[in-house]
What does this fold into?
Amino acid sequence: MRHPSDGTLRRLLDEPAGVTDADRAHVANCPTCLSALAAARQDAAISAAALAEPPQVDVEAGWQRLIRTIGDPDPVRVRAPRARRWRAALRSPVVAAVAVVALVGGAGAAAAGNWLQIFHTERIAPVTIAQADLVALPDLSAYGEVEMTEAANVRQVGDAAEAQRVTGLPLPRVDRLPRGVSGEPTFQVGDRTSAVFTFSAAKAEQVAAAAGEPLPQPPAGLDGNQFRLTAGPGVAAVWAAERGVPNLIVARMAAPTAYSSGIELSTAVDYLLSLPGLPENLAAQLRQFTGDGTTLPLPVNARYLTAGTTEVHGKSATVLTSRDGVLAGVVWVDAGTVTAVAGPLTADEVLSVARGLRWDR
It folds into this structure.
């Protein structure tokens, strides 16, 4: 017998009389379902506590905290609680909506010195990550040193004209707002941010030893090689409800670009995907992009989100929808710029906004 769905497990908590005797008997004798039921009970408790009183939300401060979390270079602080932070973040429609925008942050800076450009984004493709794999995923700092070299400095500005002046990225016009969204947006901008990752064979060997496996021989020149990712500037229009909760976000960022101090992308990716500790299902999906140099993988937590593809303005687009139907987002790349539309809306509503965007000429 198949395991009952997440919806059935939640109904056991909220409306047990609506669950069949067969499903109840299965759950009572299935360790996997009992564990999932405990997680659902914890989620319900968190949601109840969060809704006990109206939230006072500071959108700008929340966005700043999210970006600091994504780019936190401190391995001691990042490694242990990272999975818990993402599980909590993806339970929140507000944080998840902002994450859709922040995670596809772009880059357009020219390489400096002897940096070799190894990646530029022409398209985005979803990569599904199971909950168990997400928990097991090693932190990047386990394989080397991560240094944030430029901060994003996300902040609110007065109007669209100032946002364009600061970032050089004009926002499209939204001709028709979806139901429940009204008023004028506020505008958030972010400066360019950059990080440098230095691969360490010694650190990777420690990970391999902990997994009880030998470390594959690194390609010549990989040990100590640096990889640089620049992101931004970016701009977002945010339509918020009375308490500051985003009802709709339309954002644009220059598409991500990565550089290397010497190693080619395909060489680095082939080796990194062979290292112990990376879940095989995830590695298999990422291998599809080996040597591509133009496709940006977008991680999707399969427990909370589903992903699909469609077209927006003639370009391939990725649609993300929360499994509870509360949140949706769509993201695509056009002429070197990433555009994202997200909010606590249906996928059809988000796509209607995206396809209706107009650029003033």
Remarks:
- The first helix runs from residue 6 to 14.
- Residues 54-358 form one domain.
